[in-house]
Specification:
Rossmann fold; six-stranded parallel β-sheet; alpha/beta; 10 helices
Length: 218
């Protein structure tokens, strides 16, 4: 399903709700091939990484993305205060974004990772948590029952936010921490710079949410 089809399906769903339809709750299960888990684990071991936090700084719209330098500073705090390395998930064309995060991260030395879909699933499923905006990898991680710190700006988490099926292994309140400024204005217009509401999410605030997930897993 391409982006246009997704947009049309979303519009049709909203029209159905206005006509009186109810939201459905789907049960689903995603399986990760063992060979993908072995491949990812081996790749990370080459960087001496076994326990990690995934950061997903990219996104289809720049206005939905938390700034790269803040992701880098977050890497520093996670390494210094929690003793964990970060893995930077990125896709085609996002090499310069990853370079900016690494430059801001300094000696925290996050590991860039760009693999296949099944390798991404393995990476996400075995992470302590993921930090990212309203974008595909965040939602995929949630579908795999990985704890999340979801950074929302112009898009509404009530519409686009973390969704977990009823067969999730834990309460969504414990698994998902949604951060959004109370001053955020909902819009789905694509912008070429981070939305002002995202700039109100501090590194300390995001770090505190990551720390909660790390402590819950200990």
């Amino acid at each position: 399903m391409n982006c246009k089809q997704v947009h049309i399906a979303t519009q049709n769903g909203e029209l159905s709700q206005r006509a009186g339809a109810r939201n459905g709750v789907a049960h689903f299960h995603l399986s990760v091939p063992p060979e993908a888990e072995m491949s990812v684990a081996q790749a990370l071991r080459s960087f001496s990484v076994t326990k990690y936090v995934v950061l997903s700084p990219g996104g289809g719209w720049v206005s939905k993305c938390w700034p790269a330098d803040r992701f880098g500073l977050l890497c520093q705090k996670i390494r210094d205060d929690l003793g964990l390395r970060c893995v930077l998930n990125f896709g085609p064309g996002e090499e310069s974004l990853v370079a900016s995060v690494k430059a801001a991260a300094g000696n925290a030395d996050p590991v860039p990772y760009n693999g296949s879909l099944v390798q991404l699933m393995a990476l996400l499923r075995n992470a302590v948590c993921i930090v990212g905006g309203d974008t595909g990898p965040l939602h995929l991680a949630i579908a795999l029952d990985t704890p999340s710190v979801a950074l929302f700006g112009p898009t509404d988490p009530a519409r686009n936010g973390p969704y977990r099926p009823c067969n999730s292994f834990a309460s969504p309140r414990k698994l998902d921490i949604i951060l959004r400024s109370p001053d955020a204005v909902t819009t789905y217009k694509r912008g070429d710079r981070p939305d002002p509401s995202l700039l109100k999410l501090s590194v300390d605030e995001v770090f505190d949410s990551v720390r909660q997930h790390v402590e819950a897993r200990q």
